[in-house]
Amino acid sequence: MRRLTLLILFTLLGLSSNAQNNPENSFVSNPNTEHVVLFIPNESFGISQELAGEVAKYNAKNHIDLKLDLKQYRIPFLSSKATILVRTFKSYSVANNYIKTIQQENPDFIRGQILEYTWVISIDNFNTLIRSKDKNSYLAFLETLK
Fold first, then answer.
1. DSSP letters of the chain?
2. Whole-prediction pTM value?
């Protein structure tokens, strides 16, 4: 039921695409499609709301031209804390440049042990991840891209 609710929610938010057409239900590299960035907090981090606020302030100050939208979702198989989703980037390269800029500027929210993962993920792969609830398969897929 929870998975169905998440899929319906993501469809309504425009995060659904042709992932349903992937019969293997596997992750695929498609850098020219829309991507999102996931900030997945460390389990020991205190309050996800603070993290979301810091990311929103950073985006408003440094990336206003990208017109990014920020949402928080509880995705228990990723973290017990709310995952921050920043959307929508027109391609992998735009999303990856966003991450590289953040790493170079080193804002407070990426210092220390606050984040467990920062992922650039296509909308198709995000939908596959939500359906499969298999973080380890996605991590293995990321390793194949290196």
1. -HHHHHHHHHHHTT---GGGG-TT------TTS-EEEEEEE-TT-S-HHHHHHHHHHHHHHH-GGG--EEEEEE-TTT-SSEEEEEEEESSHHHHHHHHHHHHHH--GGGSTTSEEEEEEEEHHHHHHHHHH--HHHHHHHHHHT-
2. 0.81
Location of structure tokens 């390793």: 143
Residue 59 structure tokens: 């985006």
Looking up tokens 């995000």, which residue turns up? 126
pLDDT tens by residue, 15-35: 554 444 444 568 999 999 999
CB distance 45 to 72 below 8 Å: no
Instruction: Give residue 106's identity as a one-letter amino acid code.
Output: N
